[in-house]
UniProtKB/TrEMBL annotation:
SMART domains to which the protein is assigned, alphabetical: AAA
Signal sequence segment: none
Organism field: Saccharomonospora marina XMU15
UniProt superkingdom: Bacteria
AAA+ ATPase domain location: 262-417
Protein's recorded name: Uncharacterized conserved protein (DUF2075)
Length: 630
């Protein structure tokens, strides 16, 4: 969906009357429920009139232009999409435009630039930015995946002369990414005429735009479905904006480390669904295929075991790339070129446990130091709001202090937006307000959801039976995977023997509805997936997942059962230790306990890619959730 859609000629009239930026601001307030910044308004006011004048001079006033069009299942917006027909084929033709006000910029790596006035920030090369937008759009749109030639991309630095951005011109042009400057205006007009028909009708341009806006979009590529191809064949994930910046910063830091023996710690900060694991797997795939020593490590048995199984199913050597944070107690410094620490919030004080050999225990230090020492470029992917167990201490402050103590350079990249949950940033806000993670009060989904958020479904269920039926219906009607997860509020029994053999115990009992938890680690049960694979194995639907099997994974349709450990009383949340069955969390102090329970439900609520269904066992809480989900 675009903030504004009109013909190029109509938009130029609005721009000439100095009204276009106001129109965009009003639509942003309506569609995004956000007040745009002064910088963005200034950009609209200065850049759009130039592009619209060029379209007029190219004889393309009749084409339809979509301004600030959001990519499917993504928070990213394209500055302009020009819709018309191709002059030779008569097919629809779409030109994605990325506009920059830069008058000068310097290439610092193949895909990274620095721009005066932007401080020390490293930005993505605009050609790479629009190329990735084109590829992401094609991959997310079945109708375009079979006809990628309909899509074109340009980056237009309309204030820049060649002398100010000469190094950026090294980027090879393609149909999905060409660079034009102030001095290239004649070439830009020629290129626009080559892909958009000057003789095309207004009716055809409207039809082209209608088709574009009505395309069916497939959800974002699931992480696990691509893991094997990513690691063993070639890059499959399309990284956008800050994701690609993070990737390139790591590759540049590795080059520096090999050339000058420098050591750089890279921290990538982002919430659930911001694309951290896609960055991780893109790096692992590229480095492994290049023969560079690289490991991917987590503190999660479920995630590491699943990656070993999925990514290494055709090549057992690949399984050795996936490790745990506590695997480096006896490692030598710089054994690896790159260590990617996914879910770095799960880093603990030390790596020792009751099974650690005495000689290793005696020389073991802090886990964060071990992880930094073992690689030339340690990379930490971090969400500080996903800490769900006592003893987890991964934070930006902790990593920064450890890096500085070891004389390392530090690079921090912030990921913005939401690629899970239908790409809905409003859902992130809704969850934060629902759980009291921000000071503003909770609001019903219908009041926070925006016109751009209609792809993501939020509902409540009257009972666990109704939730289960809804999930089954969504699977049947729309495909994808569905899972139920709950707070850890029921005992978790070992499997028992029955007449039919070993089976799971139906521990989760709500009225006359009974279901088992997912299998315990190392407790195999016929016809049920091992605990590590609950989220990815189709047999996982019959069990209820807990935080330790759901964290780090995604599925299409999420059912979340709020147990009696977290209830609403007198307009606020109350965490109740006596109703928790998590032996680790129950040991936490009062304030920490409440924070851990709150984070647990935040994680469970953000697993779904296409929709979430809520239910609480507590009557007052259920009434609250029903009101908030309407």
């Amino acid at each position: 969906m675009a903030l504004v859609r009109r013909s190029a000629a109509d938009l130029r009239r609005e721009a000439n009357a100095d009204r276009l930026h106001t129109l965009l601001s009003e639509q942003a307030k309506f569609q995004l429920d956000a007040r745009v910044g002064i910088g963005e308004v200034r950009s609209w006011r200065r850049s759009l009139p130039v592009l619209l004048a060029d379209l007029a001079d190219a004889g393309l006033g009749h084409v339809e232009v979509l301004l600030e069009h959001r990519l499917p299942h993504s928070p990213k917006r394209v500055d302009a999409v020009i819709c018309g027909t191709h002059p030779r084929t008569g097919e629809p033709s779409y030109v994605l435009v990325e506009l920059k006000q830069w008058s000068s910029a310097e290439l610092v790596a193949y895909d990274l630039v620095r721009v005066p006035g932007y401080g020390a920030d490293t930005l993505l090369h605009p050609v790479e930015q629009v190329r990735a937008y084109c590829q992401y759009l094609i991959d997310s749109t079945p109708a375009l995946a079979t006809r990628p030639h309909l899509v074109h991309g340009i980056a237009y630095l309309h204030n820049a002369q060649e002398s100010g951005i000469a190094s950026l011109k090294q980027h090879a042009p393609s149909e999905h990414g060409r660079l034009f400057t102030l001095e290239d205006r004649a070439e830009l007009i020629e290129h626009l005429r080559a892909v958009l028909d000057r003789e095309g009708s207004r009716t055809a341009a409207l039809a082209s735009a209608d088709d574009f806006l009505n395309f069916h979009h497939a959800p974002s590529k699931p992480l696990l479905n691509l893991a094997a191809k990513e690691i063993q064949e070639r890059e499959q994930f399309i990284l956008l904006d800050e994701q690609k910046v993070a990737y390139e910063i790591v590759m540049r830091a590795l080059h520096k480390a090999r050339a000058a023996s420098t050591k750089t710690v890279v921290v990538v900060l982002g919430g659930p669904g911001s694309g951290k694991s896609a960055i991780a797997l893109s790096l692992v795939g590229e480095l492994a295929r290049s023969g560079r020593p690289v490991h991917h490590a987590t503190g999660s048995s479920a995630f590491t075991n699943t990656m070993r199984k999925i990514a290494g199913r055709r090549n057992r050597r690949v399984q050795g790339l996936f490790k745990y944070f506590n695997n480096y107690t006896a490692a030598e410094p710089r054994e690896l070129d790159v260590l990617i620490c996914d879910e770095a919030h799960r880093i603990r004080e030390t790596s020792v446990n009751r099974y650690t050999r005495r000689e290793v225990r005696e020389r073991a230090g802090r886990q964060i130091d071990e992880l930094i020492d073992v690689a030339s470029v340690p990379v930490f992917l971090l969400d500080e709001n996903q800490i769900v167990r006592p003893g987890e201490m991964g934070s930006l402050d902790e990593i920064t202090a450890a890096a500085e103590a070891r004389g390392c350079e530090l690079e921090v990249v912030h990921l913005h937006g939401q690629f899970r949950c239908g790409g809905s940033t409003a859902f992130d806000t809704w969850v934060a307000r629902l759980l009291g993670l921000e000071p503003l009060p909770p609001l019903p989904w219908s009041q926070l959801a925006l016109p751009l958020d209609d792809e993501f479904v939020v509902i409540s269920a009257e009972s666990p039976q109704a939730m289960e039926s809804w999930l089954l219906m969504k699977q049947a009607e729309h495909g994808g995977t569905a899972r139920m997860a709950a707070g850890y509020c029921w005992p978790w029994s070992d499997p028992i023997m029955a007449d039919s053999g070993k089976c799971l115990v139906e521990d989760v009992v709500i009225g006359d509805w009974k279901r088992p938890w997912n299998a315990k680690p190392d407790k195999r049960v016929p016809d049920a997936p091992e605990s590590y694979y609950w989220a990815s194995d189709e047999r996982g639907f019959g069990q209820v997942g807990c935080i330790y099997t759901a964290q780090g994974f995604e599925y299409d349709w999420a059912g979340v059962i709020f147990g009696p450990d977290f209830v609403r009383r007198d307009g606020r949340w109350v965490a109740r230790r006596g109703h928790s069955h998590d032996p680790a969390v129950k040991k936490a102090g009062e304030l920490q306990f409440a924070g851990l329970i709150r984070n647990t439900y935040k994680v469970l609520l953000t697993r779904g890619m296409r929709g979430v269904c809520l239910y609480s066992t507590d009557e007052e809480t259920q009434a609250f959730l029903a009101e908030m989900a309407r």
